[in-house]
Amino acid sequence: MKFIDTHSHLYTKEFDEDRDEVVQKAIDSGVEKILLPNISSKYTQKMLSLCKNYPNNCFPMIGLHPCDVNLDNYDEEIMHVKKELLKKKYIAVGEIGIDLHWDKSTLEIQKKAFVTQILLAKENNLPVVIHVRNSFEETINIIEKYNDDNLRGVFHCFTGNINEANQIINLKNFYIGIGGVLTFKNSNLDETIKNIDDKYLLLETDSPYLTPTPYRGTRNESKYIIEIAKKLAEIKKISINEVSRFTNENANRLFKI
């Protein structure tokens, strides 16, 4: 069985002491590809260095995370994204979106950054990787406004209900990223996911965050994607091999890797 972790932050400080070991353990566990969404310019070089060391396994994205959007350096950060896109080395524009969990006061500039990066993705024929936290309505409204045949992507770390899932599906070219929350006892996400067609689902860890059961409380790693796959197989009443097959197909279709 082979898996693709479509969302992992292996370049962050949480892995500074054992990054190579973590990557190798993931590969040994069957995670053949790890996709790396960026956060801001301060992480770009570490992310690219990781991809240089593992060119067949790690693949970079470029983008400004909504939690890192602020008035002080907004123009510089967006210019960084634009310049990096000219290098044609990225598989997606991400992680972008809207986060109203930590700071609602930045909503308008978050929206501006989100729209700008959506347009950059369309110009460069790249998918978008969307962060949504306490902001589904605001996020989906923007995507629906700019949606066309040249826009595609994934709503990362989906935790919503069936109505929200159907709004994503109705966009036609968007996927739903499923991570560790699926394994949480009281998330109720399993009730939603069991009713979603396989062709819209991707696997992700969001490591080092959202560690799946039974490892909750510890640092998340790409190798734990197997626990998410097991849970998805249980919910869908299919084999884990089948989960591997269709989630890999979906990831390859979206990211063209």
Describe what you observe in this structure.
The protein contains 9 helices and 8 strands. The protein has 257 residues and is of the alpha/beta class. It has one domain (3-255): TIM Barrel. The longest helix is centred in the middle third of the chain and has 17 residues, at 107-123. The model has no long low-confidence stretch (mean pLDDT 97).
Helices and strands in order:
Layout lengths: L2 E3 L13 H10 L2 E6 L4 H13 L4 E3 L13 H12 L7 E7 L7 H17 L4 E6 L2 H11 L6 E3 L6 H8 L4 E5 L10 H5 L7 E3 L21 H12 L3 H16 L2
Parallel strand pairs: 1-2, 2-3, 4-5, 5-6, 6-7, 7-8
Helix pairs in contact: 3-4, 4-5, 8-9
CATH architecture: Alpha-Beta Barrel
Query: How do the strands of the widest beta sheet line up side by side?
Result: 4-5-6-7-8
Distance between the termini: 18 Å
> How many structural domains?
1
The number of helical segments is: 9
Main beta sheet strand tally, sense and closure:
5 strands, parallel
Strand tally: 8
* Percent helix range: 40-55%
From the helix content, strand content and strand pairing, which structural class follows? alpha/beta
CATH topology: TIM Barrel
> Mean pLDDT, rounded to whole units?
97
Radius of gyration from the CA trace? Answer: 17 Å
Question: What form results from the Cα inertia axes?
Answer: globular
Order of helices and strands: EHEHEHEHEHEHEHEHH
Classified in CATH, the superfamily is Metal-dependent hydrolases
